[in-house]
Amino acid sequence: MAISSLSSAQSVTSVAWQQIQQQQAQRNADQAEQAARSLQAQARSAQSVANRAQENARSISVEANQADSRANQAQRGLVSLKSIGEIQSGFDELRQQISTVLSKDFAASEPAQPVPVVNTSGQQTGTLISVTA
């Protein structure tokens, strides 16, 4: 009987050992599943952050393009103003030259003589006639 008791004891020990191993395997599986769920949540969170960062990058890119456009427009305006200033300077110079030429011409010319006008009778008018006869 001692052999059958020993066999029974080994059988009970074996079953208990299997149960312990099974429980340990279940705990390991539960922990792995929990870790997987946690990692999936972290991945979703990271993906959400990445999506927001990408959207922010798009927005910044649009703003940069708009700023570049405004800078180009300002540069064109500056070039236009410079050209207008040069044209204005040229006009001022031309006015000064015309004024100088005209003042010299008027100063050097003789006083204007009246031009005789012929009336309907064919007589010249506007001339001086001596009436002392």
From TrEMBL:
Residues 19-54 have a biased composition (Low complexity). It comes from the Bacteria. Residues 56-73, 118-133 have a biased composition (Polar residues). Residues 19-73, 109-133 are annotated as: Disordered. This is Uncharacterized protein. It comes from Candidatus Dechloromonas phosphorivorans.
